[in-house]
Amino acid sequence: MKNAYVNRIWEEVKAKNANEPEFLQAVEEVLTTLEPAVDKMPELEPNAILERMVEPERVIMFRVPWMDDAGNYHVNRGFRVQFNSAIGPYKGGLRFSKEVNLSVLKFLGFEQVLKNSLTTLPMGGGKGGSDFDPHGKSDKEVMRFCQSFMTELYRHIGADVDVPAGDKNVGGREIGYLFGQYKRIRDEYTGVLTGKGLTFGGSLIRTEATGYGLIYFAREMLKVKGQDFKGKTCVVSGSGNVAQYAAEKLIQLGAKVVTLSDSSGYIYDADGITQEKLDWVKELKCVKRGRISEYAKQFPSAKYFEGKKVWEVKCDCAFPCATQNELLEADAEMLLKNGCKLVAEGANMPSDNAAVAKFQAAKIMYAPGKASNAGGVATSGLEMSQNSERLSWSAAEVDAKLDSIMCNIHDNCLNTAKRFGLTDGEYINYQAGANIAGFVKVAEAMIAQGLV
Ligand code: NDP
After folding, report:
1. For the chain, which domains are there?
2. For the chain, is the Cβ count within 10 Å smaller at the N or the C terminus?
3. For 57-82, how does the pLDDT look when each residue is reduced to its tens digit (9 = 90+)?
């Protein structure tokens, strides 16, 4: 890093957070791309903006005791990282997974601040969750865990304070239990969580929003080059919420989707995944809570590859929709060797920094998650508006707003990249465009609000 201020902050962040690799990775990725903006904004350093951007406003950590069906007691660790409230109440998902620790949640919260800024909606950034893994737990165990988690979390959140949502392993079932407990303790019916069921304040299209939004963003990238999805071969990783609806929108736009995966392996369907096959996957994952390997037993056109990643499959476009660091340097090399021309991230930080560097060096179309997966939180913002107004909009209305928000985010990244000289002929650095656009808005709000 050439800018002295950026360099100093990076050294301080490394020294202070040496045992938080995911957080350091996320900060490094952002700082390396912010230099053109920091060079042009001398007011940042005297206002200690970078120092404050990399330090959460508040971290809450708590014990979550719960009882399993056999009457045994368990204790998990709960967290809420309230990262930055300069442009609105904290907003960001809850993740339940063994991998959850402070480093993972600080990386997610840090990214969320910039992502929420890009949506144009008034939302600050936060993230939370627990090292509890719902896989293999009964509904009643999940309910008891969620009730215990909320029995502490309720003190720290509120419709105008902090509005959590779902994330990995926190879907409609978990949000329902969390909402029920919040309502019971507070004795109030407010939009304190998003991703709620449709019968109690949820928004139509919220389930689809991250996946659909990702494909709307990628469609805009192709449009700049006079292309569309018709006939393009696409690989999608994951088979959860984001992957399912990314695949669905790709199919609707005429692409051929050939893969889905989970943490055990991936399936390759040479004939392409149709809407009917995808409906079967939704049932498998959301109702039966089964493994993607079962797809290959159900559909003879498919093969299952245990322990492998989808990036070895030849494709035009790739959509990492599973988890952080699922796409490493060697995977990026494989994609490029096989002719992949577009990578758009549905997951948060799925490509590590070395993989991103490969995409940038090859000058392919690359969309960072904080821009391309912002449709989920944007639609959460629309759910908050509907809750405040005591109204619910139609699916078509929400989908149209989502599409328009994704087009705006795309254009904002593109125009920021152009303004800072981050384009080269047909090549557009969306990564730097997204980071700078998200950052500048938050920085200006922080300066206006003084030293807080
Ligand atoms: P889900 O829990 O619904 O699905 C996650 C999927 O990824 C599962 O199929 C899971 O399989 C799979 N997976 C996990 N680890 C790996 C791995 N190492 N390799 C391959 N597959 C893996 O989560 P979501 O779809 O909601 O979230 C996915 C990503 O998108 C996360 O990074 C999340 O932060 C991000 N995101 C989600 C948003 C949302 O609205 N849901 C919004 C913005 C970002 P298994 O069952 O084996 O664990």
Report:
1. 4-53 (no CATH), 58-189 (3.40.50.10860), 208-372 (3.40.50.720)
2. C
3. 999 999 999 999 999 999 999 999 99
